[in-house]
Design a protein that fits this description.
single chain; 224 residues; mainly beta; two-stranded antiparallel sheet; 1 helix; signal; Periplasmic or outer membrane protein
Length: 224
Amino acid sequence: MNKYWLVPLLLSPLLANADASSTITLASDYLFNGVSQSKEDEVIQVSLDWLGDTGWYAGGWVSKVDFGDGTDFEGDIYGGYKFTLVNNVTLDIGVSQYTYHGDDVSSEYNYAEAYAKLGYGHTSLNFWYAWDYFGTGAGHGIVMLTHTVVLDDNWSITLGVDHSMSFDSDKFEWESEDDDYTHWHLTGTYAIHSWSMSLGYESNDIDSYADSTFLLSISTVIDW
């Protein structure tokens, strides 16, 4: 039994009076930091989240994937704690476990990741670190900066840039002799009631995995 599957169980007493919600998303692609996880096919993604009144939270998320080797399903769990440092500055720290399914080799990709997210108003600076990235044994880090401009009650625009890097190029490289890459996106979102629709333009400086592309998604949130 993987120890990270215990996260929701350990947090359950703290989440007894938590708010629960699900998000259902239909997207034109599953892009993970600009790299398609579904061979540029459309996907359905579903999450289930619990948020306690003390800042503790836990959740799970599933999506279709296509790695070309029979792997066709991703299931993740996560848990953490979000709190206010001072005024409008927040810190969110937690751990995620990524799991993959569909073929005998799929579970070899499983890995855990720790994260810290620093927020100030509509700006966020996020960090992720995996010590066995995608089952390769390589250390891997991601740094992301995003800023959202709220235009009115319904419209917003988000600009984000992130940098992914392998710390063990002998175990994992994004492409030959290239152990890092940069991805950016510009996304417009229209939200009304529990529904939102986003259209974004995404690009990166890596050749092997993805080209510049548009990403369209429609989501709805269901409160439990």
